[in-house]
Specification:
By secondary structure, the protein is mainly alpha-helical. It contains 14 helices and no strands.
Amino acid sequence: MPPTVVEPPSDVIAGTPAGWRTGWDAPRTAIATIFLLDGLTFGVWVAHLPLLKRALALTDLAFAAALAGLVAGAFVAQPLAGLLAARVGSRRVTRIASVCAGGALALPAFAPTLALLVATTIILGLARGATEVPMNAQATLLETRHARPRMSSFHACFSLGGFLGAGAAALLLRFGAGARETLPGVGLACAAIAFFVGRNLLHDAPLRGHVASHDGVTPTLAALARDRTLVLLGVLAFCGLFGEGAMADWSALLLERNTGAAAAAAAIGYAVFSVAMTFGRVTGDAVIARAGRSRTLRASGVLAATGMVLALLGSYPVAVAGFGIVGLGYANLVPILFSASGKRAGSAGISAVSTLGYAGFVVGPPAIGALSQATGSLAAALSAVAVFAVAIAVGASAVGQEP
């Protein structure tokens, strides 16, 4: 039978800073800042990947091994961070992990060999993975306290951080700053800010508001796996992030092959996708508050599927518009699913769903490549994204209807 879900008691958040009841919402600002810093460090990291590759004269295959270290670290850290947050509270884990993530950003810049680069990317992946689960748990706690949607706006902060990080890195590179100057500088600054704002994160009671195992206290992976609704939420996250990863890696090539667009014009497709996703997250909380989680998720799946069909079959302007519609569809998938899993099973639930979702993000691009090779058509391979989007619409009732 499914595991017991313990509802958060009214005093689950204790010791809230005085700003909670004043005009300045200190916890909300702190959580938003953590999301922003997470996106900013990722944006700076991505912008410096070509420099790190050239510095060690790595082949594409060797560099892929270094990037795989980031993925491996995150995979290990996410479930462990969820269980740790359930034991000691998401506030403590978020604060420590976010500081470590800032510090770890500096390490790859000083790796003299491929082996050490892989080791440093694993450390960076561990720190980032350990941050993402408890910070989403913090966002869920804030939603519970306010009794209204907040998750989409926090993920919009992550998207904004990514944009700012990539832009700042581009400017610094233009003025001659290298990876050994920028990565430590940005990383240590982010670590310091995270440490400072971490004082205002929400105090959650450990071992409360989470899935209970057979002993009634500690959430376990086995207990989570017996919760069919939580498993379904993880499957939906896999479907959504599968598509998001496919869009990141294959959208430009699809425009080139289907419409004959030049490289610069083809790159606009993903840019439109990203802008639409950010806009969707900025407005997402208001939409969810009005329509409810289930209807919003169902509409998101329909939008993503419709936009993907346009992108696959349309001329260049229609295909680009289709990418924008896909971006709007994907904008609130992760916020809705993480919020639902957090309210159902706390930090441990978020860790389970995020780990499955992240697997989709990693598996998506190579799976599309394999399907394209097997079918001889990239468009046919990317139709899987539309199919998964329809599956999201069908399974949307799993998140519940309340905001």
